[in-house]
Amino acid sequence: MRNSRVLISGAGIAGETLAYWLARHGFRPTIVERAAGLRRGGQGVDVRERAIEVIERMGLTAQVRSAAADVLGMRFVDADGRRRGEVDMARIKERIGSDEVEIMRGDLVRLLHDANGGTVEYLFGESISALEPDSDGVTAEFERAGRRRFDLVVGADGLHSTVRRLVFGPEQRFVRHLDHYFAFGDADPALGPDRWVTVYNTPGAMAGVYRSGSHPQAKAYLAFRSPRREFDPREPAAARRALTERFGKDPAWHVAQLLESVLADDEMYFDALAQVHLPSWASGRVVLIGDAAHCASPVSGGGAELALTGAYRLADELAAADGDHEQAFPRYERAHRPSVGRRQRIGPNLRLLVPKTRAGIAIRNTLTRLPVLESMAGMERIMAPRNTEPLTTARTDTTP
Ligand SMILES: Cc1cc2nc3c(=O)[nH]c(=O)nc-3n(C[C@H](O)[C@H](O)[C@H](O)COP(=O)(O)OP(=O)(O)OC[C@H]3O[C@@H](n4cnc5c(N)ncnc54)[C@H](O)[C@@H]3O)c2cc1C
Question: Read out DSSP for 275-310?
Fold first, then answer.
């Protein structure tokens, strides 16, 4: 096998899935993850369409289904916590015969990681600081572990990818801000009913609590409209300041407790709502997958699906080309681009979740009561273009 030593930056959904399939195909993957351990943050993510097939091929269907978040839908409340609207997503999914699974992001990453036991080398608490590609391979310099040689390098390190910055250029060239910031953190389960996402809105902002059926704990979810700001959202002090500024004076519903929970969570996740658009995901021996290549944003509902299917396709193309990246990388990109294009077209989700005005909030709530919104959501699911392209290109099915 040519090019068997593959360095993957990022132990998220994309990185873990790629490592699994590369190891199965006979490559030797190493994952470098900046965090000290797996990042368990985030709330529910959707495993849908072809991603269900990837999970099936990994033999993880039973585990993923039994860890499903089991959320029924979303309820909208007023400042006193009175219900003003509701969208029953479970009913919609049943009506349209959907077999997708919603699972806590941390649970999915843990399941994928456990499937890699013994076959993948991990470097936790570490990051690539420089990459020097040449005709035979790539020399990677790490922040602590010195220099090592690899044949190929894959950036699976998310929206703010270091590999992308080092090889493709500064983030501002590729990241499109969607005029919102959002945060997730652990919350007190008493703040919302079991199996529902409960949401309170003010114009341009939302505070919510996500109660999964399979988890004793809950997740706080805060989001607000804002043009891009001149700070790094991953910097905890800046994130805490921005959230306190926006939600700190709101006495309504459980906003104060949700803010407090997010600020108290060491693994709080705060970021800009953004998408990544690149003309090409490969440069020489370096290639990008998952959010690093094509983040569609959490409101797309497609991040996990694209991470799973993209990782699978890249491993499959590398195996089919016997490790020849010059053949495999363009094939991976051709096979995966159509799905990405569809998921990056965001429908009305964001406007419904964070209406801009009081009138917008009232209209949204009225629609849910009629129940126009439920029919709209059902119709949207039925009409939305589906990602039905096969996981493997016609000439190959290299699944070992
Ligand atoms: C903590 C967290 C919570 C999230 N919560 C949600 C959510 O609730 N809903 C939703 O739709 N999406 C969420 N997302 C985004 C979602 O996971 C992705 O859209 C999707 O799953 C694609 O995953 P990915 O593996 O490409 O990227 P990510 O899930 O972002 O994973 C990237 C990984 O790379 C690591 N990393 C970053 N920089 C470096 C570096 N320099 N060196 C090494 N490793 C690095 C990160 O720590 C992370 O583990 C979350 C992401 C994270 C990291």
Answer: EE--S-SEETTEEE-HHHHH---GGGT-HHHHHHHH
Residue ranges of domains in the chain, CATH in brackets: 5-71+100-174+275-343 (3.50.50.60)
The end-to-end CA distance of the chain, in Å, is: 15
Structure confidence by residue, pLDDT tens digits, 4-47: 999 999 999 999 999 999 999 999 999 999 999 999 888 899 99
For residue 190, the model assigns a pLDDT of: 92
Spatial strand order of the sheet with 282-283 comes to 121-124, 28-33, 5-9, 152-155, 286-288, 282-283
DSSP string, 151-163: SEEEE---TT-HH
Least confident window among 76-90, 297-311, 359-373: 359-373
CB of 105 sitting under 6 A from ligand 1: yes
Query: Which of 18, 64, 105 for a ligand 1 pocket mutation test, highest count of atoms within 8 Å of Cβ?
Result: 105
Q: Is the CB of 310 under 6 A from ligand 1?
A: no
Average pLDDT, the chain: 92
Q: Does the beta carbon of 15 sit less than 6 angstroms from any atom of ligand 1? A: yes
Q: How far apart are CA 18 and CA 179, in angstroms?
A: 31
Cis geometry, peptide bond prior to residue 371 (ω within 30 degrees of 0): yes
- 78 by Cβ neighbours in 10 Å (0-12 / 13-18 / 19+) ranks as middle
Does ligand 1 lie within 6 Å of residue 275's CB atom?
no
User: pTM value?
Assistant: 0.94
CA of 158 to the centre of ligand 1 (A): 5
H/E segment holding residue 184: strand 175-187
What share of residues in the chain are helix, strand, coil (percent, to 5)?
Answer: 40, 25, 35
Residue 382 has pLDDT above 60, yes or no: no
Gap between the Cα atoms of 140 and 129, Å rounded: 8
Question: Closest Cα to atom 12, ligand 1: which residue?
Answer: 298
